[in-house]
Amino acid sequence: LDRARRAVSAGADYVAFGAFFPSPTKTEAAVVPLETLDGARDLGVPVIAIGGITLDRAEGLVRAGADGIAVISAIQGAPDPGAASRDLRAAVERGRAGRTG
């Protein structure tokens, strides 16, 4: 979070955190605890979750505080990338609708 705070102070207009799950794209990325999103919400800029995100995980990340997600394998590895994109967008929208805070 300290690095993100410095970036926002320097003018960043969004921050990305991850990997939240083991990622087939970046196999050496350290896994970030979900609780990171709690502190990230206080930064005052959109928060993007990245790393190992699948359709089954997207909604929960947004409910937990991410404003959006960044994916690679969830779309590129799908039999129908267009349908995968639409399904992920719907999951993000459900996550936003289900936020309690």
TrEMBL record:
Record-linked InterPro entries: Aldolase_TIM (IPR013785), ThiamineP_synth_sf (IPR036206), ThiamineP_synth_TenI (IPR022998)
Biased composition (Basic and acidic residues): 86-101
Keyword set, alphabetical order: Thiamine biosynthesis, Transferase
UniProt enzyme class: transferase
A Pfam family annotated for this UniProt entry: TMP-TENI
GO molecular function, one term: thiamine-phosphate diphosphorylase activity
One GO location term (cellular component): cytoplasm
Region span, Disordered: 79-101
Gene Ontology terms: biological process: thiamine biosynthetic process
EC code: 2.5.1.3
Thiamine phosphate synthase/TenI domain location: 2-75
Pathway participation: Cofactor biosynthesis; thiamine diphosphate biosynthesis
Protein name, UniProt field: Thiamin-phosphate pyrophosphorylase
Native source species: uncultured Thermomicrobiales bacterium
Lineage: Bacteria, Pseudomonadati, Thermomicrobiota, Thermomicrobia, Thermomicrobiales
